[in-house]
Every structure is written in C-alpha cells, then in structure tokens.
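Form 7-S
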Amino acid sequence: MSVQYSMADKELLTDSLNSQKFITDKYNTFASECSSPQLRTAFMDILQEEHQLQAELFDEMNSKGWYQVQMADSNQISQTKTKFQQESAQG
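Output:
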C-alpha cells in the first residue's frame, strides 16, 4: 500500500522540522549553560532524542523531495576550511 502525501502533509512536516530546529537550539543552550552536572546530563539526553526526531523528519522530507540540500563543491569546502583555520590561529 503506498502512502499519498498532500500539500498539507508537506506544510505539517515543514512546521515540525522547524519546531525541532528551535527545540534543539534551546536544549543546546540549556545544556551548555547548566551548572548542575545531573541537570546537564538530563538536557543532553533530551537533546539527543530531539536531534533524532529532527533527523527522522529531515529524512522523510528529503525522501519526498520536500527538503533539498545543495552539496558543497570542493572549492567551497577548501575556502571554509581555510577561513576557520585562520580564525583559530588568531584566537
């Protein structure tokens, strides 16, 4: 049995993926600014689960052609690598 997707499905998945991006950003901040080791561990566990959900949403959207990623060419990769190496050397 094949699954039929509609524009509403795409909008729902897009909204869900955007929500997951927001959530993972917040949990990352909470974990990095937490002074309690036990609470930090709890936030990191939740963050891992949220990243997994985000990856599943991305994979589903990507498989349907609803979230296309552009592959970086080797020149872009080299330029970015050089930029970060120079910034690391300065800081």
